[in-house]
Amino acid sequence: MSYAKTENGAESARVAGAAAGPAEGAGTALRPHAEDAFANELSALAAADDRPRPERWRLSPWAVATYLLGGTLPDGTVITPKYVGPRRIVEVAVTTLATDRALLLLGVPGTAKTWVSEHLAAAVSGDSTLLVQGTAGTPEEAIRYGWNYAQLLAHGPSRDALVPSPVMRAMAEGMTARVEELTRIPADVQDTLITVLSEKTLPVPELGQEVQAVRGFNLIATANDRDRGVNELSSALRRRFNTVVLPLPATPDEEVDIVTRRVEQIGRSLDLPAAPDGMDEIRRVVTVFRELRDGLTADGRTKLKSPSGTLSTAEAISVVTNGLALATHFGDGVLRPADVAAGILGAVVRDPAADRVVWQEYLESVVRERDGWKDFYRACREVSA
Length: 385
Description:
Layout lengths: L7 H13 L13 H4 L1 H10 L12 H9 L1 E2 L5 E2 L7 H11 L4 E6 L5 H13 L5 E3 L11 E3 L1 H7 L6 E3 L1 H8 L2 E5 L6 H4 L1 H8 L1 E4 L4 E4 L5 E7 L10 H4 L2 E5 L6 H18 L9 H16 L18 H18 L6 H12 L5 H14 L6 H11 L1
Parallel strand pairs: 3-10, 3-11, 4-7, 7-10
Antiparallel strand pairs: 1-2, 5-6, 8-9
Helix pairs in contact: 4-5, 4-6, 12-13, 12-14, 13-14, 14-15, 15-17
């Protein structure tokens, strides 16, 4: 037995509102959902999209890829890039969702796996909120279903007492579900997905029924390379996914572009003014992170020790955003070395013993001798003292 959606009218109104513009209250949300924050772009793409769409998709695969990668529509509407990286990666991910095979986004922390999964769900289904957040304590009910225990005790097992999970809702409604940090979920709970992904059905033995997935259903999971060995995926589950690896930015300019775009977006949401001449500090943060991450200076002349942390692009974005807030509230509004030095120290020195040695060696052997970095060196020395 398949369960039909019970609130089609309410859902249609919500989606229509999103298409017209940000939902009511979105302007005060600290972080609007992708379908609300970029509602105008999604609406413009839908209007211009004349290509075939898989059943229940809001946009065609071509339009979904354009939404993520950016472009200019025939009417002049500019679609901002949500992901800066190889186009083929996005095309493979979108094509996977158009089949009956689930998508696993894999990569080191900070490679935009969650960001990409959210925007894929928003573009495909118009709703990115059917989400299971994976942790060591995620129960089976988070993926299958739970019960309203007041109803259960009063009337016994019934459809009214059943509380559907985001995955069950996505199956019944032909939507895209998301599972974040899949490898952090206990292995026995992970394997709950095997029947869902292979048979496209979710049994409810207490009711003698099942929920069958309708066309349009699919699932996006994320996992990071650093979690290998924590709760490794079984071979049976891994076969149900098409794995797409999201790499770190290939070049410094690409990473600077990503950091700049995200800092501008976050800054606008926090009412922070654009930082004049902030590009110098953004490029400096990216340079430090890349050199320590790679264990080699940008000119290839000096080998370096790498700290225990990942020093990801996401962490660079956080350091620059925090620096911008410091410059705004406690400085003259200009992003300077002193504004980012403490953030870099916190990102690099995770292990107080080993990482502090790595950082001090880098400061003295690289930063101290680099032309134009004297102010940055002094600021780092001051916060490291």
